[in-house]
Design brief:
The structure is a single chain. With 606 residues, the chain is an all-alpha fold. Helices cover 72% and strands 0% of the residues. The chain contains 35 helices and no strands. α26 packs antiparallel against α27, α26 runs parallel beside α28 and α31 runs antiparallel to α32. It starts with a helix and ends in a 14-residue tail after the last helix.
Length: 606
């Protein structure tokens, strides 16, 4: 032990680092909680634990261990047996608090870090760079991060590169991109690390286009490219599904990053980019050339082939993988569900359970969606029972999927039962129930549920309003539909999309107000779709309004000149009104343009 410590003085790390006492030597060699507690008891009996240097070694061991119990013991030692903590001890405790905050969703760890820092300042112990780095790892709110930043500036550490980069990352993680950009621009000489932090921050915030512009600007300034840069750029290319840009980044990686520095993360980023772009041949080449593969590599290939619709190759990679985890099982299940092979979904799920892989909520949603698509109510009920047994009634998203399944199977009563029993109802669950009622022709009940949702202060989203407008359209509730459509922008600040306009056009057309339907279609901010003109045409045929039918038919033929439906409907309309010359002209126009009427067919088998 240091001589100063033996004399009862605080240990000075700049003077002595000697560990002469046998108990301290044992502590440095200690492995495990049991021996640590024995050495702690021995040091307490000798009275050495109350000295600063021995206590710093005890706290170092306890905070470095991954055991939560030892971390709590370190806290007890600090609070009750460390009367004169120095900067090193404070930093140890702050680092431990930061590590606890990273793995704990409660606010106790960040508050503990703040309390430690305030105690440190009250004890006239001046912080250093490590202090602020630990504090930044502890903060959860942007306001607290700004206060740490202010203390960094007033303490004179704002020019430290590592600390500055940590502050930039803190702002990006908090979503304050503007402040992060200001800090980056004020950096005297930006390095590759700060550049990569900004680039990754843009990618994580979904600012893909900004990330690419930032990379181009940085490249012109001569900032180098490493594997961190490449991973961020490949993520951008995958999100944009830009194969050409992805291949360009791949070329940059080959030219500028040594093959030995690629690593598994970069290889998986390449695989993910090609898979998201649908370039599975390129992904297979990268996969085949990889020196090392992990579960992520195999899962990327399985998911890529699933998205490409190549379930045979997805199964091949799935079964060839050294091990199969929950992600790979869910990816293949989703593939079979997407392509409506319900029997394969059930068989694969049985194999999953036989392999002792515990399903999660993603598995549950896949199974529920498969039952809904298949219209298999009996299987849906079985899956419902399994979901309740495994996950209870707390999850609103699972409840939404169950409501959707029951309503698509025609069992609105079953869907409403799930809705009523749900412990928590978010906007998704309300929307699922409203959509289910509208889908099954219960427009009035759907509208009543919408008003009830409003009464419970649940704010609708665009999907909710689309479901309500659809319900109004099918139930002929014109006044209510107009009121809801007007409220979209005025009350909820939601811009109506083409689907919302389509519902309103259909509502006007079904109500016989063809002139209003035509006027709304013409003043839409986007180009009306075929379905919008088709609803006007069908309504005008029902009302035998030849003038509006001609306009709608012309718009349909303009959108798709090769589509026979518009010609046939218009010809039939003229014929029904006795305008045989017009009807013959439409048929002749079809023949001149090479449009053929499809031969009628029946789904019934003899």
């Amino acid at each position: 032990m240091a001589a100063g410590a033996a004399a009862g003085c605080a240990w000075d790390p700049t003077v002595s680092l000697r560990l002469g006492h046998p108990a301290l030597v044992l502590l440095e060699r200690c492995r495990g909680a049991g021996p640590f507690r024995a050495i702690l008891a021995h040091l307490l009996r000798l009275g050495l634990a109350f000295e600063t240097f021995p206590m710093s070694r005890l706290l170092h061991f306890a905070t470095a261990a991954s055991s939560p119990r030892l971390t709590r013991e370190a806290d007890l030692l600090f609070r009750h047996f460390t009367p004169r903590p120095n900067l090193y001890i404070y930093n140890l405790m702050l680092s431990a608090s930061a590590a606890a905050a990273a793995g704990d969703s409660t606010t106790s760890s960040p508050r503990r870090a703040v309390a430690l820092y305030m105690s440190m300042l009250a004890s006239s112990v001046h912080p250093d760079e490590r202090t602020f780095l630990a504090l930044l790892r502890s903060v959860e709110r942007l306001s607290a991060g700004r206060q740490v930043h202010a203390h960094v500036v007033t303490s004179g550490f704002h020019s430290r590169a590592y600390l500055r980069n940590s502050l930039i990352k803190m702002y990006l993680d908090a979503g304050d991109v503007e402040t992060a950009e200001l800090m980056f621009r004020s950096t005297p000489v930006p390095d590759t690390v700060s550049f990569n932090i900004m680039l990754s921050g843009y990618v994580n915030e979904g600012c893909t286009a900004k990330a690419l512009r930032f990379f181009c600007d940085a490249a012109l300034r001569g900032i180098g490219v490493d594997h961190y840069t490449a991973v961020a750029l490949l993520t951008c290319c995958g999100r944009l599904k830009d194969t050409l840009l992805g291949r360009s980044v791949h070329g940059v990686v080959i030219r500028r990053v040594d093959r030995g520095d690629w690593g598994l993360i970069l290889m998986n980023a390449l695989l993910d980019m090609y898979a998201k772009c649908g370039e599975m041949d390129a992904a297979m080449r990268v996969f085949g050339e990889a020196d090392e593969k992990d579960g992520i590599s195999w899962n990327t290939m399985v998911a890529g082939f699933v998205n490409a619709g190549k379930l045979d190759l997805a199964c091949k990679y799935f079964f060839e993988a050294p091990s199969r985890d929950l992600v790979s099982w869910n990816a293949l299940l989703a593939g079979f569900a997407r392509y409506r092979d319900f029997s394969a979904v059930i068989k694969l799920f049985d194999d999953m359970l036989a392999s002792r892989v515990n399903p999660d909520k993603v598995t549950a949603v896949t199974l529920i969606s498969a039952a809904a698509t298949n219209g298999s109510l009996n299987h849906g009920r079985s899956i419902h029972g399994w979901v309740v047994k495994g996950f209870g009634l707390q999850d609103a998203f699972l409840a939404s999927a169950l409501v959707d399944m029951y309503c698509k199977c025609g069992n609105v009563k079953g869907g409403h039962s799930v809705f009523e029993k749900a412990l928590y109802r978010d906007v998704t669950l309300w929307t699922a129930m409203i959509s289910g009622l509208a889908f099954n022709g219960h427009g009035t009940e759907a509208l009543d549920l919408y008003w009830k949702m409003q009464a419970e202060d649940v704010t609708p989203n665009g999907v909710t309003l689309l479901a309500v407008l659809s319900a109004c359209s099918h139930a002929g509730l014109l006044d209510e539909g107009c009121r809801i459509f007007d409220a979209m922008k005025q009350r909820y600040n939601i811009e109506p999309g083409i689907e919302h306009f389509g519902c309103m056009v259909d509502l006007f057309a079904r109500s016989g107000r063809l002139t209003d339907a035509l006027a709304l279609a013409r003043r839409m901010p986007m180009r009306p779709s075929r379905s919008i003109w088709g609803s006007i045409l069908n309504a005008s045929l029902a009302c035998q309004n030849t003038e509006v039918a001609e306009i709608a038919s012309e718009e349909l033929l303009h959108l798709d000149p090769a589509e026979e439906g518009g010609y046939v409907l218009l010809s039939n309309l003229y014929a029904a009104g006795g305008h045989w010359n017009h009807s013959d002209k439409v048929r002749q126009n079809m023949e001149r343009k090479g449009v053929r009427k499809s031969v009628g067919a029946s789904n019934f088998e003899s």
